[in-house]
Amino acid sequence: MACCWGPGKPPNTFVMLDSSGEVLDVLYAGSLTLRSQNVSDQQRKKNDQDRVLKFMMDHQPHVIFQMVEEKPRDVGHGMDDLTIVYVDESLPRLYENSRISGEQLPQQSGIVKRAVALGRYLQNPLAMAATLCGPGREILSWKLHPLENFLQVDEKYGMVEQVMVDITNQVGIDINLAASHEWFCSPLQFISGLGPRKAASLQRSLVRAGSIFVRKDLIMHGLGKKVFVNAAGFLRILRSGLAASSSQFIDLLDDTRIHPESYGLAQELAKDIYDQDVRGDSNDDEDAIEMAIEHVRDRPGSLRKVVLEEYLASKKRENKKETYGNIMRELSCGFQDWRMPFKDPTPDEEFYMNSGETEDTIAEGRIVQATVRRLQSGRAICVLDSGLTGMLTKEDFADDGRDIVELSDRLNEGEILTCKIKSIQKERYQVFLICKESEMRNNRRQQNQNLDPYYREDRNSLQTEKEKARKEKELVRKHFKSRMIVHPRFQNITADQATEYLSDKDFGESIVRPSSRGLNYLTLTLKIYGGVYAHKEIVEGGKESKDITSLQRIGKTLTIGEDTFEDLDEVMDRYVDPLVSHLKTMLNYSKFRKGTKSEVDELLRIEKSENPARIVYSFGISDEHPGTFILSYIRNCENVCVRERR
């Protein structure tokens, strides 16, 4: 049973799959996660719980696959004996919005397609990944590594294709199962010797035939002799699909990696072992050979008794050692799966999977943004961008927190805070936050970052870089000229000192400082966002160039661009305050997205995949041009269009 949790539209959805991944039944339970204490809502919730329990009792699932946004406590009754597995939903979401899902499940809604993919992904991850390797190449949107953006599209697909070929040929394909269930056919294109065109032709022929009982008959299904020679060892013939109910003979060797060209060697080896074990000389007819192969397969210990070098010497086939080694392995355990066995996710993996966070994005000491949702007497209930709940107490809000009577005196609902993560309660999907100024200045987080295990610093180079930076700062200080200006927003500091001073201040905070261009200029440094600062040049006028005292003081006029002001107070009132107001409006806008341009672009692609008919857009900060916002949007293609506006 696969379960996808919806926000209401679509509703929570349960899909029951059979062992072949085909849909048996669907149940919608939209009231299952209601938190309202309203009597009618509680009754609707109870009704949905009863319907889900009946759904499970009617079908008796062996495993429940769940994709959830938070740990479900609503379907806990009567499920103690069932195995519940949490599954990453990224690939099922791609399938939900792919063209192939519409062809395979034409009558189903999007969330049902996602739930079906969720269950099938656990049943046969190779087939589900291969499903997204069609002409649309939806697999390219599957995030496999944080550095994959450095690859070109064709480079990434080339690597995906290489892995798919390796794994598909390693595990093989059950031909009769693929003929009966379309989604099992997806990896066929990666079988050696086939490719998309020949695989599609073979699939159509197999569907028409319904089942196949002899490996060599594949030649009659459109495979040329050379293609058959390349592909035969990876195409498995089992009593499955429509062949499951047939009594027709199936050769045991047809479900091994032994190539038909080597069947004679395998049969001879099995017969020799059988004759030795039963102390007799059996016949060479088909029944006797089949009996010998069954004997060896059921008693793998008899194979281990064979001294291969002596046996090959007796047959004068010393040059066939590797072939015989493979034959012996396949006779003892045909098509043994060499992949690592599936393991249930650990509690930590479940937390990161369901929250969408990673060890790098959420950890103790990490700086995050949190939106205040509700204020209680001594704490603020916040929400992080990922949806995790954040708890902020008045003691952790400010250094004078103990003197605060009510947090509502300092905070408002909807306010965005920059905080540090104090601790994480993964089992409750909660984080405790702290935003005291003294703690925000502390950079212990920098010492705790996990480094790549292969990263090694060149200490000599590191010392050289540090020395170079130190000398540059000394040079700046040496040429720095302080000014005789008294104003609460002015400080005699350098650009580096200004950004350091503003680093723990709120967005929109600013400071005026001397300019490196000389005594006729000032610079306004404005904090745009975390790590992004804009430096605006202020031209001073009305000075006596020969009077050093006049040059040291502030000019009689201050010009920024085309606007002229009489003093710094007017600069703050007419220029800075409106600018900061617009900045905060943009930062609080619902379509604003934090992150780098590539991160914002990826969020848009995900939103577009979920809403193909919609023109999706968002605003973001330009790191390259501080003070500029980026408008990114996608219309009818996957390419992200960008416009910059100051």
TrEMBL record:
GO terms for cellular component: transcription elongation factor complex
GO process annotations (BP): nucleosome organization; transcription elongation-coupled chromatin remodeling
Gene Ontology terms, MF aspect: histone binding; nucleic acid binding; nucleosome binding
Entry-linked InterPro entries: HHH_9, NA-bd_OB-fold, RNaseH-like_sf, RuvA_2-like, S1_domain, SH2_dom_sf, Spt6-like_S1, Spt6_death-like
Compartment annotation: Nucleus
CDD domains in the record: SH2_Cterm_SPT6_like, SH2_Nterm_SPT6_like
Domain S1 motif: 365-436
Protein name (database record): S1 motif domain-containing protein
Organism whose genome encodes this protein: Brassica carinata
Taxonomy of the source species: Eukaryota, Viridiplantae, Streptophyta, Embryophyta, Tracheophyta
